[in-house]
UniProtKB/TrEMBL annotation:
Domain called Partial AB-hydrolase lipase: residue spans: 47-106
GO molecular function: hydrolase activity, acting on ester bonds
Species of provenance: Anopheles merus
Active site residues per record: S185, D359, H390
Span of the signal peptide: 1-23
Keyword set includes Manganese: no
Protein name: Lipase
Similarity comment: family membership: Belongs to the AB hydrolase superfamily. Lipase family.
Annotated SUPFAM superfamilies: alpha/beta-Hydrolases
Length: 415
């Protein structure tokens, strides 16, 4: 009972603080984008607005998946020193769990991976998975309706449907046959699903750069995941009974919370920072506190409860396998009482695994297991900062010099 109470207390702490810390609600943001509401009054901006304000051109593209989800991608075809032109090499970047395309531009010109790739001559495409702020549409289902089927997915569907749809669209639009891929966390998980279950997509990848790769999870250290993983079946059942299928949805009551609570000089700012550290690992020197309101305005960006459940199942089982629906439904869906493993031996695209020693969600030993399971690894590449954590891969102050330059150098070799 003590452990159970700790589990719920930790879940409540992270969920409530993260929600309070958001500077704009998803509803406010979507209303503004649709022309039905005022621009949010805080300092945060959507991906496209950030890009325009930073002096880069941006295009917004929509693609509909085979199962009906309408996804938004942002394209940066050129930059101030590298104008758009036909025939550029394409780079596609995919965000992690509870995140969005904003991760790749939020550090600003000269620092953010998207801008660095544009400046290096790439035609850059930023993906958004189903259910996040930019991809809350379906041809039939309403994400805000009670007991809707909209949220009936995990990262399995993101890998099987979303990534192929977005990659196909980007290649067809640019006239290219293949592209460079970089993903963070869930953006790596979904990639390994795509290339293992739909192996024809290996041929469309010149090189893949896995930032904090997540497949095997037995040795993760995050107290957030370790606390709720033993109770994942009960949590999943409770959420379904309550009709709650979206994880960390925004609240209209907390519209300006991020700016008020996490800005410079705010007493609550260090609590905001420590919530992030609690999830991904502590590395205080790499977190720019001034950016916290903007970061927490875009993150969390929404996700299905099943995405969290699926990761917890992976931690509990020690395997990288499909969603566990329980004995009966597993028999119906898979023909066996246990879900099948993803056939990683079918991943033949060149893959570089970039990892950090202090990553609480992608443990070094788990990354090494992944490295030994794929057929064509470029190699294992450690970030030299011994305290490099899971979130530093996208928000770290020195991500440009410690990580992104190396990624771009490898991409250039595989063009």
């Amino acid at each position: 009972m003590v452990v159970s109470n700790r589990c719920w207390a930790l879940l409540a702490l992270v969920a409530s603080i993260a929600t309070v810390a958001q500077a704009s609600t998803i509803r406010d943001v979507l209303a503004y984008r649709a022309g039905d509401g005022p621009q949010p009054t805080d300092i945060s901006k959507l991906t496209a607005e950030i890009i325009v304000n930073d002096g880069y051109p941006v295009e917004e593209h929509q693609v509909t998946t085979a199962d009906g989800y309408v996804l938004t991608m942002f394209r940066i075809p050129g930059g101030p020193g590298n104008p758009a032109r036909e025939g550029k090499n394409v780079a596609f970047i995919q965000h992690g769990l509870l995140c969005s395309s904003a991760d790749w531009v939020i550090l600003g010109p000269g620092k953010a991976l998207a801008y660095m790739l544009v400046d290096a001559g790439y035609d850059v495409w930023l993906g958004n998975a189903r259910g996040n702020t930019n991809s809350r549409r379906h041809i039939f289902h309403d994400p805000d309706a009670r007991n809707t089927d909209f949220w009936d997915f995990s990262w399995h569907e993101i890998g099987y449907f979303d990534l192929p749809a977005m990659i196909d669209y980007a290649l067809q639009y640019t006239g290219q046959m293949s592209l460079q891929y970089a993903g963070h966390s869930q953006g790596t998980t979904s990639f390994f699903i795509m290339t293992s279950l739909r192996p024809e997509y290996n041929e469309r990848i010149r090189s893949m750069h896995a930032l904090a790769p997540v497949a095997f999870m037995s040795n993760l250290r995050s107290p957030f995941v370790r606390a709720f993983a033993p109770f994942v079946d009960q949590i999943d059942w409770l959420m379904r009974m309550l009709g709650v299928n979206e994880f960390l949805p925004s609240s209209d009551m907390m519209t300006l919370g991020g700016q008020m609570l996490c800005q410079d000089e705010a007493r609550f700012q260090e609590v905001c920072a420590n919530v992030l550290f609690l999830i991904g690992g502590f590395n205080s020197p790499q977190l720019n506190r001034t950016m916290l309101p903007a970061i927490l305005a875009n993150t969390p960006a929404g996700a299905s409860v099943n995405q969290l459940v699926h990761y917890a199942q992976g931690y509990n089982s020690g395997r990288f396998r499909q969603f566990d629906y329980g004995l009966t439904l597993n028999l119906i869906r898979y023909g066996s009482i246990r879900p099948p493993d993803y056939p990683l031996n079918r991943v033949t695209a060149p893959v570089a695994l970039h990892y950090g020693d202090n990553d609480w969600l992608a443990a070094v030993s788990d990354v090494r297991q992944l490295h030994s399971s794929i057929r064509n690894p470029i190699g294992l590449f450690r970030v030299s900062d011994p305290n490099w954590n899971h979130l530093d891969f996208t928000w770290g102050i020195d991500a440009d010099s410690l990580l992104y330059r190396r990624v771009i150098s490898f991409m250039d070799r595989y063009n």
